[in-house]
Amino acid sequence: MCLGIPGRILETHDDSGLRMATVDFGGVRREVCLSCTPEADVGSYVIVHVGFAIAQVDEAEAQRTLGVLRAMAGAVEGELGEPLP
Question: How far is CA 54 from CA 29, 48, 74, 85, in A?
Fold first, then answer.
């Protein structure tokens, strides 16, 4: 199963011409490519799939989705490599 997981952009930077970000998934942080979501910036919430931010969402939707994913702990751990706190 593949999941798109919402997270909040903490910082952005350039990596060899690619716009990248550090994204917080409720306590788990990962590097994410922002090439598919050029409008996303620090503080924005994005849906991340296999290391790419594929859509921007509002905070309420991100929090609701994280709550559902916490209830499905095994699926999230398989996708992020560790459980959500």
Answer: 17, 6, 22, 23
pLDDT tens for the chain, residues 1 to 85: 467 899 999 999 999 999 999 999 888 899 999 999 999 999 999 999 999 999 999 999 999 988 887 777 666 666 677 766 6
- Mapped onto helix, strand or coil, the DSSP state of residue 14 is strand
Map tokens 């994280």 to a residue.
66
For residue 69, report the phi and psi dihedrals to the nearest 5 degrees: -65, -35
**Whether the model pTM is above 0.85:** no
Tell me if 40 sits within 8 A of 34, measured CB to CB: yes
